[in-house]
Design a protein that fits this description.
Elements: H1 19-22, E1 23-26, E2 34-39, H2 56-77, E3 82-87, H3 98-111, E4 116-122, H4 126-135, H5 141-144, E5 147-151, E6 154-155
Parallel strand pairs: 2-3, 3-4, 4-5
Antiparallel strand pairs: 1-2, 5-6
């Protein structure tokens, strides 16, 4: 008789990020590109020591959403690019996980080469720009230029009309 059947393992319960609330496609006729939205309020940091694969479902969900965005871009807009729109309203720096960010960068750069049109970050907490400097070296040099911060409804470096339908 195996002793493993009698051993009780207490499962670690953690607040799971619901992938569909955190990352989703935004459909609108007013854009020339597929738009992927990320709602920072919905991200829940996971203690990876207690749950090593804690972000796996989220990584898979993000990759699937981006693949779907590329399908839409090809079919609807005859494009090979998408826009990622990150809203960080009411997020705190306690939610930020550098390990998650670095791993996601590696996954996205190896899976989706040259498909990001822009990543627009809105409502970033002041400390986020400091954190951004930490992950900046891990981002491809060309991709870095595609990150924009929206401030007071305005985005520097790009003309908003460029990705709006006529």
């Amino acid at each position: 008789m195996s002793t493993a059947a009698t051993v009780s393992i207490k499962e670690y319960k953690f607040p799971m990020t619901v992938p569909e609330d955190f990352c989703y496609l935004y459909s609108s006729e007013k854009y020339k590109y597929a738009v992927v939205c990320i709602d920072g309020r919905e991200f829940k940091k996971i203690k990876l020591k207690k749950s090593p694969g804690g972000y796996d479902k989220l990584y898979v969900h993000i990759v699937n959403i981006l693949r779907h965005a590329l399908d839409i871009a090809k079919e609807k807009y005859q494009s090979r690019e998408y826009i990622v729109y990150v809203d960080m309203v009411n997020t705190s720096m306690k939610q930020f996980d550098i390990t998650f960010a670095k791993t996601l960068i590696v996954i996205l750069e190896s899976t989706f080469q040259d498909t990001l049109k822009y990543c627009i970050i809105k409502n970033a907490p002041k400390l986020f720009k400091i954190i951004y400097r930490l992950i900046y070296p891990f981002i491809d040099k060309i991709t870095r230029k595609k990150f924009m911060f929206e401030k007071n409804g305005k985005i520097k470096k790009i003309d908003i009309n460029e990705f709006m339908s006529s």
